[in-house]
Design a protein that fits this description.
α21 packs across α24. This protein has 24 helices and 3 strands. About 8% of the residues have low confidence. Helix content is 64%, strand content 3%. A 3-stranded mixed β-sheet has the order 1-3-2, sandwiched between helices.
């Protein structure tokens, strides 16, 4: 169980620092091949420019965290110290928030200088320290919980399942730090191996698939169909998803084809690839139209602009994805957006602005953060749906093409989310009997009908964060509920969005289906809804 706990922590941090809001992991874009512009010479030249000396020191380091844990435990040894102990708890919560925020800023530096050896080492070291700090703080909280006088102060921060582990007589802060660093290194080995395989130009696609399939079976050996969803605090089951997946494929595959046909029939569709759609800086479209969503969104958008809470990246030296990462001390976030120079930049800027907006309402501490990425993705995809009617003013003659493209993208999220979700669960159910060849065959069987060009090794998320992928599908269904409502009652759609964006997706208590019901959504994990929304999409495509 200890390993599953660390896996959960790793998953939480990967999502908050690198995956939230990024593309679907295939790096396959509608109408275009994703050709990497990275070259070995770029990397070598960048390494030559790096300097090993680095005088930067973190504001909170591991020694500081240990000192704060020890001071807190000393205070628990004396009676009548409730105020001091409460302050100690707040200090440790702040310590982890500080490390998390520092890691977010370092992420921006590193991802805009992707081949820097110095920044990579610094980033990896701080990432590891984050995990160690979390475990040291957990040690302090669980040991403090054993002191009856102060147990009520620690109760919100402990997991009864791990009290024995942290409070065993053999455990100490020094020993725990050593164990955690070893565990972290072992977990990283699998991901390092995956990336070595996936980016090895000497291997064929077939060889990459088989070797990644073998590794995938190893990664999944730590999970089952129940625990893999527990990592994301879901209130639906593997059985729900497998039973719905067939219907999703039957209903949404024809919709996907219809939108592709409509898109290429539109006279201005090619212009989406020829250059930026809308402003050169895509965030300007968000800032200029924020008041049309709500006064609160306008305020947050202005703050993003005024405080430069975004990074625009382009060129060979930058990481070519986009994401939003938390700034917990500021109750805010910062956006990293890689610019492709076409329509994708505008959609991504809107998408990430939805995540940024949601962070302003989520004051969950880093220590207590859980994963409900299903909700988080509605907060971004839902904003995309609200911007579709605004494309007439933002995109001019390309407005219809952008609307169709955006909906095609959401339909793609539904299909890919459920297909990969079914794939993951099917492998788990048959883990003991499956060979690497079986894994590849299953992937091709499930995904081939939709996108025969996709390869197993391209689906990065299933190796980084098993069980994550279905979030794209379920959140897209909820976002389509916002879209369909907006067709007849835009104000009501905005109201739905404003409610869901205030649901703290980092709070473990806020689960997907329950949150949708509370915010006035349909039950999107229902056969009738899937039939209803697929029909609405087909009728809308027919209107062009």
């Amino acid at each position: 169980m200890k390993k599953l706990r660390l896996l959960a922590l790793v998953t939480a941090s990967v999502l908050s620092l690198s995956l939230l809001g990024c593309s679907d992991g295939i790096h396959w874009r509608f109408g275009q091949d994703d050709e990497s512009s990275e070259t070995s010479s770029d990397s070598e030249n960048k390494d030559d420019k790096d300097k090993d000396d680095d005088d930067d020191t973190p504001s909170v380091d591991i020694d500081t965290v240990k000192e704060h844990v020890e001071a807190m435990l000393e205070h628990t040894e004396e009676s009548g110290n409730e105020q001091a102990v409460s302050e100690d708890i707040s200090t440790l919560i702040n310590d982890l928030d500080s490390i998390s925020e520092e890691l977010s800023y370092l992420t921006m530096d590193y991802y805009t200088d992707w081949y820097s050896t110095r920044l990579e080492k610094k980033y990896d070291a701080l990432y590891e320290d984050y995990y160690v700090a979390y475990e040291l703080i957990s040690y302090g909280f669980h040991n403090g919980y054993l002191v009856e006088e102060y147990a009520h102060l620690f109760e919100p921060y402990i997991d009864p399942e791990y009290v024995e582990y942290y409070t065993d007589s053999y455990m100490s802060l020094r020993r725990l730090e050593g164990y955690t660093r070893v565990d972290y290194e072992l977990l990283n080995e699998d991901l390092d191996e995956y990336f070595d395989i996936a980016y090895d130009d000497d291997l064929s696609d077939k060889e990459k698939n088989l070797r990644c399939a073998e590794l995938y079976l190893t990664i999944l050996s730590d999970y089952d169909t129940e625990s893999i969803y527990e990592l994301y605090n879901r209130d639906y089951t593997a059985e729900n998803i497998i039973s719905l997946s067939k219907l999703v494929k039957e209903e949404f595959l024809p919709v996907s084809v219809a939108y592709e046909d409509v898109f290429y029939d539109l006279p201005d569709s090619d212009e989406l690839y020829d250059g930026p759609v809308g402003p050169e800086n895509p965030f300007e479209a968000v800032w200029d139209n924020a008041s049309r969503i709500s006064p609160e969104f306008e305020k947050v958008a202005k703050n993003m602009k005024d405080n430069s809470l975004y990074v625009l990246a382009d060129g060979n030296d930058c990481y070519d994805g986009s994401f939003t990462t938390d700034l917990p001390l500021q109750n805010s976030s910062i956006i990293y957006l890689y610019q492709y120079g076409d329509y994708y930049d505008l959609i991504t800027a809107i998408h990430e602005s939805g995540h940024h907006y949601a962070y302003t309402f989520d004051d969950t501490s880093t220590y207590l953060s859980g994963n409900n990425i299903d909700i988080a993705e509605i907060q971004s995809q839902g904003l995309e749906m609200l911007f579709i009617p605004l494309y007439q003013d933002i995109c001019g003659d390309s407005a219809d093409a952008m609307a169709v493209m955006n909906l095609y993208s959401i339909v793609d999220s539904v299909l890919s989310g459920f297909i990969v979700g079914e794939f993951e669960l099917t492998v788990l159910e048959n883990l003991d009997s499956m060979t690497p060849e079986d894994v590849v065959e299953l992937f091709d069987e499930l995904y081939g009908e939709y996108n025969p060009d996709a390869e197993l090794y391209m689906i990065t998320h299933i190796f980084e964060s098993p069980g994550y992928y279905i979030s794209y599908g379920v959140s897209a269904l909820a976002s389509l509920d916002i879209w369909h409502t907006s067709l007849t009652d835009y104000d009501k759609a905005v109201e739905m969005y404003e409610k869901i964006v205030r649901v703290e997706s980092n709070d473990k208590e806020n689960t997907f289906s329950a949150s949708l019901e509370k915010c006035g959504f349909n039950n999107v994990l229902d056969n009738d809804f899937i039939l209803y929304i697929a029909d609405a999409l087909e009728k809308y495509a027919d209107s062009f």
